[in-house]
Amino acid sequence: MNHPATGPVWLFDLDNTLHNASAHIFPHINLSMTAYVARHLALSDDDANALRVRYWRRYGATLTGLMRHHGIDPHDFLRETHRFERLHKMMVFERALGALLRRLPGRKIVFSNGPQGYAGAVLDAMGIRRHFSDVYGIEQMRFHPKPQTHAFRHLLHDLKLLPQRCILVEDSAENLRTARRLGMKTVLVGRGVKKPAYVDARIASILDLRRAAGRLLPR
Question: N or C: which terminus of the chain carries fewer CB neighbours within 10 A?
Fold first, then answer.
């Protein structure tokens, strides 16, 4: 697929940006991760859950701590913790999302700390996969999650992107801080969150993006 050298490149986080993962999906993943940690490190459920949260807060992804301190196989971990029997039943998202993406000018890429297979399955469940030229997951980041600079540099290099043409749309302010440092435009998604100085636009819902797009697009 050929892409124009000019025009905006929209980088979309997945969970709690394009859909509401907190309702059903995150609780399922958190339980699966806790069970995995308990099983592989011989910990109680309480201790495993505490370790999971601690690594997530410290590194941006539980997996990073497990790889760094316990030698966990990342592929096995991701496969075991992102299994869903009825993913489509767990999805909570805006039905108008497809129309928004269709009207939004420029290239669109999913940039997620989740595994690529999971991200693709979520996009399929929402019926919006066709709107994205690429789905870039944690494996493509060489298991360096956002907000680590390595994650962004791998994305820019692999997909031949110029940071000044990129607009990152995220629910995580920390991830947006790294994006701004690299020269990207930034959009924070979420209600009741403050707008840091490094955020160009804050929107309550992903559906508000089209209204905010005018002042974000490269001239």
Answer: C
